[in-house]
Structures are given as structure tokens and as C-alpha cells.
């Protein structure tokens, strides 16, 4: 599955390229499954031809598509009529932050299919990052719990929700960087750690994956790190001491990434 990171912010796009690079090198499209698109969602859809694509809708807990990337999705796929249909599909009630709901655009009636299914988008995945855009949720006094953690969780949830689907492309915007208020570096570092780690699914064990996540999120719980995981760390040049002492606010994610 190809992953396209799409945002109108030049700073976010530059930061994605930097954090997706391996061992200090910038992102090379020849080496990675990721692509960064600096521009609007509509321009991305017009510049490329998609046949089976999933898009992440990262907005609020009630499915309204009135701002940011959600608004771009709404405008491109049919305006208020699409928003009304979309909210019916996810269920118009409360969806807690951390949940995800997959909406299959091919489940509409004939008129609806003609309106938006010819855009090449098969799924819109509702991954709410905030209850409602009433105030910024990020608190600079608690960058982990209000920044790194919610961004990582939203990214991981997006990837886990899309992986079982029959899609060849996943489009993700900058997460929690709008109304949520998370600074660019925190957003991109968290997203890129999740993206890079998830792309290693078939090459590292679940135990090692879990150990890396615990360290990134500042939950370095030694009893959860098995002897086989420690052996794997040694084989893949992952320092256990760096893993235990990792500080996401100061350290490079390269310092704990497996050497593969």
C-alpha cells in the first residue's frame, strides 16, 4: 500500500521529508513507500488517477466535515449532501477519540455512486482526533500526553484501520496540527515514527514493535520486554540502553530504529 502524506503547509511537508529519511538522509521515493504532496486535496486528486484509494478524515467525534482537510474531502466528494450521507454511514452519534469507522463509498445508491464514486476514492476512514473544535487541545506543559501520544495514536489507528482494506493508496493529512494545535515538529516526528515502524511489520517481531512504541511514548516497562526481543534488538543493532532512556523531546527516532 502506497501512502501519500498531503498538506497545504510547507513546514509540515518539509518536516515529513526530514523525519521519513533514514539515518539522517532525506526521503527518497525510490527507497520508501511514502510520498509527500505539498498542496490541497483537490489538486492531489486532479494530478493523479486513483482506482482504489482510502482517505483519512481526522476531524471531530460527530463526523461534521466543516473545516480543514475534512472540508476539502466534503467539497470534493459532493458538498453538504456528502457530509449528510457520511454522517449517516458512521452513525450520527458520538465517536470517541481513538475510534475509527470505515465508510465504503460503493455502498450508496446509484445517484450517490455517480456523484462521488467516480473520483477513485473507495473508502473514507473517520478517525476523530478531537471531540469538537472549540479550543486547542495541545498544552505545551504536557507535550507527550497532548502532542506526541495523540498524534502517534491517530496515525497508528489510521494505518491499522486501512491495512485490512483492499486499497492500493492511503492519503493522510497532517494530524492534530490544525485546531488541535500540536506544533509541526511534534506532529511530524510522531507521524513518521508510526509510519516507519508500521512499514516494518513483516520484518520485525510484534514484541520488538511493542518495545519501540513503549519507549517512544515514555512507558519503558522492562517486564514487557522478553529475552527474545532483547536478542532481536542485538541482531538489528537496537541499543537496549538507548531504548530504555529514549526521550522523544530530545532524541532522534533514528537512534532506536532497527537497522533494516
UniProtKB/TrEMBL annotation:
<dbReference type="InterPro" id="IPR043472">
    <property type="entry name" value="Macro_dom-like"/>
</dbReference>
<protein>
    <recommendedName>
        <fullName>Macro domain-containing protein</fullName>
    </recommendedName>
</protein>
<dbReference type="InterPro" id="IPR002589">
    <property type="entry name" value="Macro_dom"/>
</dbReference>
<dbReference type="Pfam" id="PF14519">
    <property type="entry name" value="Macro_2"/>
</dbReference>
<feature type="domain" description="Macro">
    <location>
        <begin position="21"/>
        <end position="260"/>
    </location>
</feature>
<dbReference type="InterPro" id="IPR028071">
    <property type="entry name" value="Macro-like_dom"/>
</dbReference>
